[in-house]
Amino acid sequence: MKRMGMIFRAKANKALDRAEDPRETLDYSYQKQLELLQKVRRGVADVATSRKRLELQLNQLQGQSTKLEDQGRKALALGREDLAREALSRRAALQQQVTDLETQHQTLQGEEEKLTLAAQRLQAKVDAFRTRKETIKATYTAAQAQTRIGEAFSGISEEMGDVGMAIQRAEDKTAQLQARAGAIDELLASGALDDQSGMATKDDIAAELDRISGGTDVELELQRMKAELAGGSPQQAIEGGKADEGQQSQTQHKFDKQ
Known about the structure:
- This protein has 258 residues and is mainly α.
- The protein folds into 2 domains: 2-154, Helix Hairpins (Orthogonal Bundle), CATH 1.10.287; 201-257, no CATH class.
- The protein is 93% helix and 0% strand.
- It contains 5 helices and no strands.
- The longest helix has 110 residues, at 81-190.
- Mean pLDDT is 75; it is low at 251-258.
- Residues 44-139 form a coiled coil.
- InterPro entries: PspA_VIPP1 (IPR007157).
- Belongs to the PspA/Vipp/IM30 family.
- This is PspA/IM30 family protein.
């Protein structure tokens, strides 16, 4: 079970890595820092509001204390020592409240100063993070675009390589077919390969007829030249040659029958 859990977490982590966009993560972190900065500023404002409220109360108590002091002085001038004592007693109670409020005021003022300083430091960090975030995002975007261009170029190169291999295969097959056709023609011409269609027989007969015709022309020309040398007519020599040729043919025919 532990192994299955580890495998599941590993696959989940890998899937998250593929799905995660660093730019979105940076923007989210920056947003969280802005929210924290806003909370700190709100805290500073709340402390400042409390401090201001204490200041108003202090001013009010100090005014009452001053008024009681004046009343006690007037009562003493009129011979009303009892009223003067009562006014001074109330003034003393107010003074205790003033002292307590002044202590709280100092505490709040110190907290306000600390929060203000923290807000300023946090603002500086947020500004620096924003600058770094934009730099990282720009670099990541440029790297991503470069990677896509490289992948696209690599895909084109592979495709062109496939096209080149296909052309090479086509040329090889064409050369092989041409060589085979040439070999068949040579075998047919030499007679080593019989023509089953009967075209070879017809070609042999035509060649034999051409041979006989060529030989006849030579004999006729020879008879004509003999006639010219003997002083005879070329036409008679040709007819005599034909007759001799016919006689030779009949003699050959008889010899073939025997």
